Amino acid sequence: MNELAGAGTSTPGPRGVPWPIWLLLVVGVLSGVSWWWATEPPPDQGGVVRAAWLEDYNSAVAKATISGRPILIDFTGSDWCGPCVRLRNEVFDTSVFTTWADGHVVLLKCDFPRFREQSAAIAAQNQQLADRYAIEGFPTILILTAQGEELARVGYRRGGAAVWIADIEETVRRGTTSAKMP
Predict the structure, then answer these.
(1) Does residue 111 contact residue 148 with C-beta atoms inside 8 Å?
(2) Domain of 162: which CATH number?
(3) Which of 53, 120, 138, 154 has the fewest Cβ atoms within 10 angstroms?
(4) pLDDT recorded at residue 4
(5) pTM of the model
(6) How far apart (Å, rounded) are the C-alpha atoms in residues 57 and 5?
């Protein structure tokens, strides 16, 4: 009889949280994940084309100085960060982006992988850059002058390469600096 006495109340689940709350949390998380993966990707943007990203900051600065183009830095967790992978697939690995980047920016990837080996020098350089520019999450994309002045800071945005490029160009235009995208 004691077992039936408590039948009308919520029994605690894991960590003492009532089961109805756990159920709502699980349904909410699953709904969010389902929505994220079910959203339509942008239309075909010319197939998969992988741009040439530098990994050495000094090389990127030298190339930016010679070319007169700003540096686009992708702070990413390439092998574990879902939005980073989506940004790469929907924007960076498209012919639209690669064509634009070839004439407008110098590409630098600052990767923070969890499952892939990385040299100690590159890992240390990437951490120093993340500290210098107060990177708090991934993906974070910076546009910098060759002298290291920040022109823009953006992240993932749905809509594909053309939308993302327009957004970053507008962000640079709205900036307070006199530097412009070539």
Answers:
(1) no
(2) 3.40.30.10
(3) 120
(4) 47
(5) 0.73
(6) 68
